[in-house]
Amino acid sequence: MSMRDYEEAVKIITKYPAKQSFVGPRPESLIQAAEKRLGLEFPPTYRRFLLEYGAGSFGSSEICGVIDYDFEHSSVPDAIWYTLIERNEARLPNELIVIYEVGDGELLCLDLGAKESGEAPVVAYQPGLPPEKQSKEVIAKDFGEFLLQIVQREVS
After folding, report:
1. Euclidean distance between CA atoms 121 and 145, whole angstroms
2. pTM of the shown model
3. d(CA 139, CA 53)
4. How far apart are CA 78 and CA 23, in angstroms?
5. Percent of residues, the chain, with pLDDT higher than 90
6. What pLDDT is attached to residue 1?
7. Pairing relation of β-strands 138-140 and 122-125?
8. pLDDT classification of 63: cutoffs 50, 70, 90
């Protein structure tokens, strides 16, 4: 269902051009450089999002992704920059990739340590909370489901 959810989300995004603001398709070489910098391999649905949209927003929801090769001097919605910052400042575990800010300080992350069939769940992470106290509540079983939830919420 993961890629099917992603494709359903894309259909909705396509219907609402005024609600979208993405950096646009990113080259495979940039995505590979981002993976190398993080020491992780992106799951298929997130990789497809990066290839097709890069990063940006739909409605009021900003989805972090890949913008350019400067992973050290960027800002939101650059997932690579954000993940590196959180690894340094909030002890974000290396298997997590920040993809969304909830707004109350909580971050939603892809948990590559819990990959299943190549996909990774989207989990909640609270910066500042010790690792042993993190619940890592599952928000979506994969990025496709997460993106579909976001776009459905934005159009309802």
Report:
1. 9
2. 0.95
3. 22
4. 10
5. 87
6. 60
7. antiparallel
8. very high
